[in-house]
């Protein structure tokens, strides 16, 4: 097997308790030809100094310090400095199996693809296993980008860049959208038309640590994460991509847009469902004018269509009823 250089990018922010486990799972890889870039995104708890100490332990580690700007800006900075032919990402509170990058690189070379992914598992803060978000394939599977897009739109595909190894020259400039959540989906659907086929491996080699309070994980049930609004915006973007690059998937893309809007309405606090909330009013208006199209959609489930109808008629009332039923249950 040839040994192209892999750049592994780790955005870091106030994570000193978990960072050593993450970094050492990478330095211990059986695939040794690595460049590891830690991007300290303006940490205030000593994490920046920890990054520097970890770099002293392994000459393959480089550290970038920057003002706080979020995970996307940190990843983009590292991409601009990456020297590897291939790029992978690891979140600083997660860790990886010792052979993850060897599996990915061997798969890329054996199947002649530009990108490959492993499966992932998740545990909570107490070490309890959580249900699989994406079901791993039973054997290695090469997926055409059109089919991969369809799986993403059906919420079955894995959009995470952390499970993947991708040829660096496929990344556009300013790859990740700064200031947005759901940023992996946003970038992946833009890149898919150029990526061609993607190899999916069955090994659950990426280990997600579900830390309450981390960037995309809710710390408070009353918190309304902006990720729901970003997901709706991404649904509109991907609908345009589908029209241009994947004719025949329009019905699937429409279903995806409806689903994301229903998710928004099921999670927004009732106190924010007001006439001066432009995002909320726009979503309700969209559901009302697209009701007939949704009812004829063959992919939306009966439950989706019922929620669509109810939210189009009386969104605040349905949310109040929904909350009351949950309390009774």
Please provide a written account of the structure.
This protein is α/β, with parallel strands linked by helices and 329 residues long. The protein has twelve helices and ten strands. It has helices at 19-27, 47-57, 71-81, 100-111, 145-153, 183-195, 227-245, 250-267, 278-289, 291-295, 302-313, 315-328; strands spanning 6-12, 34-41, 61-66, 86-89, 95-96, 115-124, 129-130, 141-143, 164-167, 198-210. Helix 5 (145-153) runs antiparallel to helix 6 (183-195), helix 8 packs across helix 11 (302-313) and helix 11 (302-313) crosses helix 12 (315-328). The model is unreliable at 215-219 (pLDDT under 50).
Task: List its traits.
44% helix; 329 residues; alpha/beta
Write the layout of secondary structure elements.
Blueprint: E1 6-12, H1 19-27, E2 34-41, H2 47-57, E3 61-66, H3 71-81, E4 86-89, E5 95-96, H4 100-111, E6 115-124, E7 129-130, E8 141-143, H5 145-153, E9 164-167, H6 183-195, E10 198-210, H7 227-245, H8 250-267, H9 278-289, H10 291-295, H11 302-313, H12 315-328
Parallel strand pairs: 1-2, 1-4, 2-3, 6-10
Antiparallel strand pairs: 4-9, 5-10, 6-7, 6-9, 8-10
Helix pairs in contact: 5-6, 6-7, 7-8, 8-11, 9-11, 11-12
Overall pLDDT: 93
Distance linking N and C termini: 56 Å
Structural class: alpha/beta
Task: Characterize the largest beta sheet: strand count, sense, and whether it forms a barrel.
Answer: 10 strands, mixed
């Amino acid at each position: 097997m040839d040994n192209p250089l892999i750049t592994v990018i780790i955005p870091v922010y106030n994570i000193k308790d978990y960072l050593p486990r993450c970094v050492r799972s990478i330095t211990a890889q059986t695939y040794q030809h690595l460049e590891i870039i830690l991007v300290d995104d303006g940490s205030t708890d000593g994490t920046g100094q920890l990054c520097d100490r970890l770099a002293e332990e392994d000459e393959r580690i480089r550290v970038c310090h920057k003002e706080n700007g979020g995970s996307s800006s940190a990843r983009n900075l590292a991409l601009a400095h990456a020297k590897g032919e291939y790029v992978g990402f690891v979140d600083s509170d997660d860790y990886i199996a010792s052979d993850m990058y060897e599996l990915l690189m061997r798969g890329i070379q054996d199947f002649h693809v530009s990108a490959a992914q492993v499966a992932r598992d998740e545990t909570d803060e107490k070490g309890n296993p959580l249900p699989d978000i994406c079901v791993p394939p039973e054997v290695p599977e090469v997926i055409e980008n059109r089919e991969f897009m369809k799986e993403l739109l059906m919420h079955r595909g894995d959009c995470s860049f952390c499970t993947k190894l991708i040829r660096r020259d496929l990344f556009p400039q300013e790859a990740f959208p700064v200031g947005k959540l759901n940023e992996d989906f946003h970038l992946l659907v833009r890149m898919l038309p150029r990526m061609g086929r993607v190899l999916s491996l069955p090994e659950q080699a990426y280990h997600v640590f579900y830390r309450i309070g981390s960037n995309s994980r809710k710390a408070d049930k009353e918190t309304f994460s902006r990720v729901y609004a970003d997901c709706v915006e991404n649904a509109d973007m991907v609908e345009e991509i589908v029209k241009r690059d994947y004719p025949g998937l329009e019905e699937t893309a429409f279903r995806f847009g409806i689903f994301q809007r229903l998710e928004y309405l099921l999670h927004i606090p009732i106190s924010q469902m007001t006439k001066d909330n432009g995002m909320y009013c726009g979503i309700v208006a969209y559901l009302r004018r697209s009701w007939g199209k949704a009812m004829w959609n063959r992919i939306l489930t009966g439950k989706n269509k019922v929620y669509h109808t109810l939210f189009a008629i009386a969104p605040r009332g349905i949310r109040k009823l929904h909350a009351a039923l949950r309390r009774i249950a």
